[in-house]
Amino acid sequence: MSGLPTFRAVMLMVIAVLTVTVAAGGVVVILDDDLLGSVSEPAPSPARTRQASPSPSAAPRLDQIVPTAAPVKDFGEGGPGVTSTPARVLAIAAGGVPKETRLSLARLRHVQKVTVVDAGAVKVSGTGLNLLAVDPADFRSWTPQPVADQPAVWSALARGELVAEARTMRKYSMILGAMYQVDGGPRLRVAASATLGLTGVDGLVSADLGRSLGFAQGVAVLLHGKEGKIGESGVRKLLGKDAQVVLLDAAARAPKQQQPAQEQPQQVTVGRPGSYLELYKAAATRCPGLSWTVLAAIGQVESGHGRNNGPSSAGALGPMQFMPATWKHYGVDGDGDGEKDIWSPYDAVPGAANYLCANKAGQGGEKLRKAIWFYNHSWDYVNKVMSIAEAYARAYA
User: Which of 53, 278, 316, 379 has the fewest other C-beta atoms within 10 Å?
Assistant: First the structure.
């Protein structure tokens, strides 16, 4: 867990703890040789005729194949001229901060701005995460300039998705674009990761979502002013002895000879997985129990991972070769751009996971084989997919 121990203690004391079940992350080991070159290709399925796939020996690895689709229309670089005024001090009160106290905080010396937001704690595989629940429009200026300038971050929050702290993403091997199930609550999609500059905070959600999750209202206070100048004692006096105060600009307060080395530039990662490997892994989280290797195997058989999108002689379309009638019922908007696009891998791959899950693929065994059979009514096809999936599992373990 990132952040100071005292910060975690107070968060857990004042905020109801929820439980999140998340697929465990891990290290992906990529072999030098292309996996597909070692997989024997059975004869084409008689159920549906397709164009020949490219030669396996020429195929790049999954992590090198970048999914392609039309750009998301409402995302892009640059914002509407928001000026970043990042928080210098973060405080967690034992209860909601009343209006009178907020006004008193604003009158403290060197304080230029004050905001109060909701906060809550959740658990991810038994590990606590601290989240702030914010209004996207109001909170935008409280983040570092690279984050404030990225519309995708704020669009994601407005849609009810999670923006995770970059360090938290790395620490827990979270997958951008993956869905995580809140126990007794909604499934949350990690839509972006960013360097938020908020010590002890692992991510942001919308205020509406925070209320639905039971977060404590109005307990997190952020103060902006001249770096290194806002007095800690004045904040503690106004918020009470049980409040915890984190100096986010502590480095600026330390003597120059004690200041830490300059950190790496702040980064924002948004939108879609950067390779088919990441895309298959993220999409598989939509169906608990379904291995990403099965999706990858189907993607290889159907289109060579987007290199032969059809239409097939039977009328199947896109990288996962959906029939339009099937897509109408099982297609999903995987990347949050407002469209269910049969041609887009960001929609088609999670759509395939949705279709397989509807046919009980997550239960494994014979039910998994039957679900694959529903995808293409041929047991030769099922055997081919399972063979390739096993090869992916060995190579990318």
Answer: 379
Q: How far apart are CA 379 and CA 358, in angstroms?
A: 19
Residue 267: Cβ within 10 Å count:
12
pLDDT tens track for 83-98: 899 999 999 999 999 9
Q: What is the pTM of this model?
A: 0.64
- Residue count (the chain): 397
* Look-up of token digits 């990662």: 269
Using CA atoms, how far apart are residues 248 and 143, in angstroms rounded to an integer? Answer: 12
Q: Which residues of 137-159 are buried (b: 16+ CB within 10 A; e: fewer)?
A: eebbbbbbebbbbbbbbbbbbee
Are the C-beta atoms of 124 and 20 separated by less than 8 Å?
yes
Gyration radius of the chain's alpha carbons: 24
CA distance 132 to 213: 12
Contact 2, 105 (CB under 8 A): no
Which residue type occupies 121?
A
